Amino acid sequence: MNLAEDTNFMLQQSASYFNYDDLANSYDSWYADRRGAMYDRLEKKLIANFLPTETGRKRLLEIGCGTGHWSRFFSQCGFEVTGLDISERMVNTALQKGIPNVSFCVGDGHLLPFQDSTFDLTAAITTLEFVRDAEVVLREIIRCTRKPGRILLGMLNGLSTVNRQKQRRGHPGNPYAAARLFSPVELREFLEPYGRVEIRVGGFVPTQNWLIPLAPWIDRIARMFGGQKGAFMAAVLKL
Known about the structure:
The protein has helices spanning about 5, 35-50, 70-75, 90-95, 135-145, 160-170, 185-190, 215-225; strands spanning about 60-65, 80-85, 100-105, 120-125, 145-155, 195-200, 230-239. By secondary structure, it is α/β, with parallel strands linked by helices.
């Protein structure tokens, strides 16, 4: 993994430890790489399992939309998407893509600029790990989501060797240095006070480049046997 794959999160500036504006031009390059494309494929498969089967014209809020990579995915799944990010440069890059059924705005997840119960569904993909106060952001997400409704989270797994190595190597100018990486158990404990929780671990991509084409089978087998150290966790919180 590289920084672009791991920074589909709330790109906080005044509300985070790192300024992500400088990444706007290179943010999407990770998905053109073979390894990045494989992680993306496996992550989207996990998240798709938690999407409602009947979308209708459901409104989805995406916190930490970055340059709109996941916004496009949610739009393709049939949702009317509002993408929010703290980085104005990221939002401007997303706007230039002209993604159908998606609107973008600059805002802070700690104080969302929306009324209560505005959205049918809220998603945050690799976001809560990097905000200053994950509890505050989660409560804001819950406030803006209709009940009954669901919240989708994509999280970097704290049990993953790859993620732990990146955090150990992090320096004050790197977002990993202050990241809060949850384990599957910690994520469940974090979410359960607010509703019913289901978590799936995936992203079992081998470190050897020549094995990357086998990643879908490796990932499937690891999940079948309950592997807990994949790089990515998908969680749904049903309110």
